[in-house]
Design a protein that fits this description.
Layout: H1 10-26, H2 39-42, H3 48-57, H4 62-77, H5 79-90, H6 93-100, E1 105-107, E2 116-118, E3 124-126, E4 133-135, H7 137-147, H8 156-169, H9 178-200, H10 203-215
Antiparallel strand pairs: 1-4, 2-3
Length: 221
């Protein structure tokens, strides 16, 4: 996909969601015995531990400095979500334990437009497998919605419904686990990149994520 904020063609976006569901359904129930990305690492990726460690090392990388600035702003940008997100940023265990009680599959881990393309035969091209591992299927979906928010050709609700239909169409029963897992991973997105939403997101998008984060509190263990 070309860089920038151009809206994805609807047919291509729907194909991405369908193929995401196909990948997840194919590996449904998969558990990591290979030592790939642990679930905890996904939710500590942009933590203050990371930025503090990089600062102590004197790194020249930009993202650790940006994330540190973004987390300072987050409490003012999303005060309701901050009450649940900031504690999880330091101690994500309640989120992890709640997610581990829901079904797992094989995750790519970075479904963003810069890693996506479509081959001439219609198959999805998916690059950069550095964050793959076992985890909740909806985590890939939530990451896709968060990082491609400016490029979505339909509402987040419609995209979520499309993915769920595609998953069910491949024989995955979503009864019982869908609502808690989806709610928890939407909260998890703010634990992962709330700093970026505070720095670069628009008010309407951040408000949507904030509402979802607050709604997920009831599922935390």
């Amino acid at each position: 996909m070309p860089n920038g904020d151009a809206v994805l063609p609807l047919a291509q976006h729907l194909s991405f969601l369908d193929h995401m569901a196909l990948l997840h359904a194919t590996f449904w129930g998969w558990q990591d015995t290979l030592g790939l990305t642990p679930l905890a690492h996904r939710y500590l990726l942009f933590s203050r531990w990371m930025s503090d460690t990089e600062a102590a090392l004197g790194t020249a990388e930009v993202v650790p400095r940006l994330s540190a600035r973004g987390w300072v702003r987050f409490a003012d940008a999303a005060p309701r979500a901050a009450r649940v997100v900031l504690p999880l940023l330091a101690e994500p265990w309640p989120l992890l334990e709640a997610l581990e009680a829901t079904p797992a599959t094989f995750l790519h881990g970075d479904w963003k437009a810069a890693n996506l393309g479509t081959g001439p035969d219609g198959r999805t091209i998916l690059l950069d497998w550095g964050l793959c591992g076992s985890g909740p299927a909806c985590a890939d979906l939530a990451w896709y919605l968060a990082l491609n928010c400016a490029r979505l050709p339909e509402t987040k609700e419609d995209a979520i419904a499309c993915y769920r239909r595609a998953l069910e169409g491949r024989g995955i029963d979503t009864t019982g686990w869908w609502e808690p897992q989806l709610s928890l991973v939407l909260l998890g997105v703010l634990v992962q990149c709330g700093w970026d939403k505070a720095l670069h997101g628009n008010r309407g998008d951040l408000a949507w994520w904030e509402d979802k984060a607050v709604a997920a509190i009831r599922y935390l263990r």
